[in-house]
Amino acid sequence: MDNLYAEQQFYYPDTRTILANLLYTIVIGIFIAVFLTLTGIFTTTVNLKTFVVMLIISECYGISTCLIIMFSLWTFKPRRGVSAIFIILIGMVCGILIGHLMAASILQNVLPSFMWGWKEDFFKNIGLWFALVIAIGYFFYSMKHLKIRKEIIQQERIKRLSSEKEALEANLRLLQAQVEPHFLFNTLSNVLSLIDTDPNNGKSMLVDLIHYLRTSLSRTFPDTITLVQEIDMIQAYLNIQKIRMGERLHFKIELPDALRQRPFPPMLLQPLVENAVKHGLEPKMEGGEIIIKATEEDNLIKIEVKDTGLGFSPSHKAGVGIGNVKERIKLLYEGKGRLILEENEPNGVRAIIEVPKHGV
Predict the structure, then answer these.
(1) For residues 95 and 133, is the Cβ–Cβ distance under 8 A?
(2) Which of 106, 129, 224, 290 has a beta carbon 3.0–4.6 Å from 263's, enabling a disulfide?
(3) Beta strands at 249-254 and 288-297: parallel, antiparallel or unpaired
(4) CB neighbourhood size of 324 (10 A)
């Protein structure tokens, strides 16, 4: 964190910073004028004339000091806090002296009688104003110091989230590059058995398997694909399962044309469909139906995977695939997306992915 702190260029004031500090100085000068008028440090007379005098003095000291410090920091561009503090102290001294001359010049023309009395206690006045300016300068420095610390903490948080995201994506790419052996061997065994008994279905299953493998392996590298590409791979997967399970599996996919080319993270929807087949429909004697439906609501894309399988069991526990989906949504959409798992009436599970339209 110290290295990050040293790299920050918060000592290099830009135009916005200079104007903001100048405005703060003017406002603080008004409060100081009110304070000095009411406390009677320079004169026991409390009236509008005294307030005007204190206001002129306060603003001359404050504005001159602020401008000199800002100009010095902008000119010398210190790289360390110690150098910046030294420049600020020198700027305070020069600002007070110049501010004193400015105030004396103005008051000598506007209120000469008051000014001469004020000049008699020159060192006392200078000492008081110097103390006030140091206090104000420390206030500004502390605010800037606190601000940069918050920025460093935010940078560290972003860096940590980026590292987590990269690790998760690396793990995802590894998973994408590996086709589940159980699924692959079962499919090849089914193809082999169908060659003699049902060549057409065997050929169809082999075509879908090739399409599924090609699509899966080609997605090892890109961070985003289109929603229709993700749906195509899922449809190939369901076609294979349909031949395996026969009439025990029915599925329906609803994808509006407006959403077909929407960017979408690869393999985000796939685990939900696999989960519905393996844990919902396949163990169920009569099987069931899977419905995949994509809709658009306000600024969200909602994708629903609904099955009529066994549903949640008393010992139901989310697996690695579901946990991976939740974590990816959290990181990819920075907390703006979510995965909802709920019971589907009258039976089965309903999984809903909600993500912003332009979040990836």
Answers:
(1) yes
(2) 224
(3) parallel
(4) 17
Tell me the C-alpha distance between 40 and 50, whole Å.
Answer: 9
**Residue 280 domain flag:** yes
Looking at the fold, whether 226 and 257 belong to one and the same domain comes out as yes
69 and 14 inside one domain:
yes
Among 100, 124, 159, give the residue marking a domain's end.
Answer: 159
Q: Do 204 and 82 fall within a single domain?
A: no
Q: pLDDT tens, position by position, for the chain (360 residues)?
A: 444 444 444 456 677 777 887 888 888 888 888 887 888 776 667 788 888 888 888 888 888 888 888 888 778 777 776 777 788 778 888 888 888 888 888 888 877 666 545 555 556 666 666 666 676 666 666 766 677 778 778 888 777 777 776 776 666 555 554 445 556 666 777 777 777 778 888 788 788 777 777 666 555 545 678 899 889 889 988 988 898 888 999 999 999 999 999 988 887 888 899 889 988 999 999 999 999 999 998 889 999 999 999 887 655 555 667 877 888 888 788 778 899 999 988 889 999 999 998 765
The domain tally of the chain equals: 2
118, 247: one domain: no
Range of the domain at 284: 177-356
pTM over 0.70: no
